[in-house]
Amino acid sequence: MHIRGRYSWLLRPFFVVFDLCVINIFVFLFFDFNDQNLYFFDSSFWNNKHLLFILYTIVFWPLSTFFLKFYNVYRFTSVLHILSLLIKQLLAYTLIIYAFIGIFRSIDVQAFVTFKYLMTSFGIIGLVKIIGYYGLKKFRAVLDGNIRRVIIIGGNSGAQELERLFRNNKELGYKLLALFSNKKEEGITGTIEDSFKYIEEEEGIDEIYCAIDELTEKDVNDYVKYASMNRINIKFIPNTKKLFSKRLKTDYYNYLPVLSIQEVALNNNLNRGIKRAFDIVFSLLIIIFLLWWFIPLMAILIKLESRGPIFYKHIRNGINYKEFTCYKFRSLTHNTKGSDYEHVKKEDSRVTKIGRFIRKTSIDELPQFFNVLKGDMSVVGPRPHMIPYTKAYAKKIDKYNFVFRHSVKPGISGLAQVKGYRGEIRNDEDIINRIKYDIFYIENWSLFLDIKIIFETIVNILKGEKKAY
């Protein structure tokens, strides 16, 4: 018999207690509050600052973690998100520490000692959190523990993608029991109508995933009703060929829901400032330590093989469709007939020998760090298209989604590129997926996401990319 949940519910309380023990034990090791011995029935009880600190953290640590959702880590949470939570909690706890020191002005603690205390405490908390995260993954993948038993209703592209995710990523801990759809395809357990009988007879279903566009209103109500009665999680899958976003937020005017478009993270003034500062520092490092000697070397190699300029300059659309001159190392034979506006295809005769190498390794993109320094581009963002292609792609994509893509600066690399949607557009699905990833990036931007994309870009370059030609 399947027991839903088992002991996984104990993990969060365990981590809360463990973290509280760590931050309080290290206070005794790092901070000298000059306390007297503790006597519970003595008036000195309230003068014991170590004890007061413990009471203080028991109140404010859970409060801060609640508001920052520090313990909201799930099986589908990324390591990047966990690191982001650790840094946010570190900043919040630093404020909590200094607030305590400020309340008790008699406490004299050096800033460096406080820094060592914070780094040591959060180093251990972070290490245990990461070990627990990967330990659970191994536990699910190898020992089949901490498993969620699920069924999928529907066969749209989103349902198919979810099925592949469950089957190919055992470490997530999802056991796919059955797949129901009215489409007659291999691997389908039965029709949507058959699913109701299956749900009634099968014990221990943890979650039901429904492809919303394949169900009638009655079907949805029946699934929701059954899930509610049997304490099963029910979730709905959109069609991934359509572009969904979280731009719409709901406000209630009395009891009337009204939808409006909310400001996304990347359009926030503070985040824009952080991103611009990162762009300037990163591009300066590349220019100072790499490009000052690399450009003359590339100039010699390019000139030895073919006549023409070292740099290829082309006009592209930037933020709000503003046109700018984008720089690349020239990788094609020089011509003045305008064929440079054609996408480079596999085995393209225009590509020079050195050009084939620098395109394969993405070296040709390096001069764009000057574009970043100028402010036309960002290190990470949606890749800029050539003007003719911008107009052509806009006709294939929902106009609002395509315009939204141009609400931020284009990037040297981007989420779509590291996911394989770079270079030549062979079909409509390529551009749809490119825009989908670009929109996800804009709406979910963080500095950690930029760093992750930069790291994945470097890894892809070292491994070699299929569409880098």
Tally of individual domains: 3
Strand percentage, roughly? 5-15%
Task: Provide a count of the helices.
Answer: 15
Largest sheet strand order: 2-1-3-4
Poorly predicted parts: 1-5, 35-43
Biggest sheet statistics: 4 strands, parallel
Strand tally: 10
> Order of SSEs, N→C?
HHHHEHEHEHEEEHEEHHEHHEHHH
What's the overall average pLDDT, rounded?
Answer: 81
Shape: flat
Structural class: alpha/beta
- Rg of Cα set: 28 Å
Query: Portion of residues in helices?
Result: 40-55%
What is the CA–CA distance across the termini?
Answer: 55 Å
Write structural notes for this entry.
The chain is of the alpha/beta class and 469 residues long. It has 3 domains: 136 residues, no CATH class; 95 residues, NAD(P)-binding Rossmann-like Domain (Rossmann fold), CATH 3.40.50.720; 197 residues, no CATH class. It is 51% helix and 12% strand. It contains 15 helices and 10 strands. The strands form 4 sheets. A 4-stranded parallel beta sheet has the order 2-1-3-4, with helices on both faces. A two-stranded antiparallel sheet has the order 5-6. A hairpin with a 2-residue loop joins strand 5 and strand 6. The radius of gyration is 28 Å and the shape is flat. The two termini are 55 Å apart.
Produce a short descriptive summary.
The chain is of the alpha/beta class. It contains 15 helices and 10 strands.
Could you outline the blueprint of secondary structure elements for this entry?
Blueprint: H1 11-30, H2 49-68, H3 79-103, H4 111-143, E1 148-153, H5 157-168, E2 174-180, H6 192-201, E3 207-211, H7 217-229, E4 233-237, E5 248-253, E6 256-261, H8 269-305, E7 311-317, E8 323-329, H9 353-360, H10 368-374, E9 378-380, H11 387-394, H12 399-405, E10 411-413, H13 415-418, H14 428-443, H15 447-463
Parallel strand pairs: 1-2, 1-3, 3-4, 9-10
Antiparallel strand pairs: 5-6, 7-8
Helix pairs in contact: 1-2, 1-4, 2-3, 3-4, 8-10, 12-14
